[in-house]
Amino acid sequence: MTDAASYRAMLRLRIYRVLVGSLGVAFLLFGLVLIGTFFGYQRPGAVPMIPTGPIGHYFVAFTGCALLGWAGGLIGAARDPLASRTVGTFTVFVLALMAMIRMVAWLIGDYAGWLGDLPRTEATLFLFIALALVWTKPTVAESVRAESVRAKSAMEKSGGEG
C-alpha cells in the first residue's frame, strides 16, 4: 500500500471513528432523556412531555434503554472499528429502516398536523448519516490485515513461534 493510499485509509478510519463515536454519545444522551421522560411522567400531577398515555411512556422508556445498549456498541466500535464492523453495518441498516418508516408516516399524513415536515427532514438526516457510514466503514481487507497483525503481535509477546 502506498503512503498516499495508507494516508487516505487512515483518514477515512478516523472519520468513521468520530462519526460512530458521536452517534454513540448522541444515542446515549437521547436514551437517558427518554428514560428521564418516563420517570418525569410518573410524578403526581405531571404534564407529559410526549402526548401519550402510560403505555406510550412505557415504550418510550423501553426505547431509551435500547438506545443505551446501541450507544454502548457504537462507542465500542469507535474504540476498535476494525474489530467491530458489524456494528456499523447494522447501524446503516437500522438508519435506513428508520428513514423508511418516517417517510411512510409523512406520506400517510396522519402525523402532519403534529409533526409537519419533521419526518421527511429526519429521513434525510438518517440517510445522509447511513451513507457517511457506508463510505467510511473499514473494509474486510483492512479488518483481516489488522487481525493478522494482532495475532502476530500476540504470538511474539507470548514467545511462541508462528
Quick recap of the structure?
The chain is mainly alpha-helical and 162 residues long. It contains six helices and no strands.
Please provide a written account of the structure:
This protein has 162 residues and is mainly alpha-helical. The protein has one domain. Helices cover 81% and strands 0% of the residues. It is built from six helices and no strands. The chain starts with a helix and ends with a helix. The mean pLDDT is 87.
| Structural class computed from helices and strand pairing | mainly alpha
Shape: elongated
Helix content: over 70%
Strand percentage lies at: under 5%
Helix and strand pattern: HHHHHH
Q: Report the total helices.
A: 6
Distance between the termini: 24 Å
Average pLDDT figure: 87
- Poorly predicted runs are none
Oligomer: single chain
- How does the major sheet shape up? none
Q: Work out the count of structural domains.
A: 1
Number of strands: 0
- Radius of gyration (Å): 21 Å
What keyword list fits this structure?
162 residues; mainly alpha; single chain; elongated
Topology readout:
Elements: H1 3-41, H2 54-79, H3 85-108, H4 112-115, H5 118-136, H6 140-158
Helix pairs in contact: 1-2, 1-5, 3-5
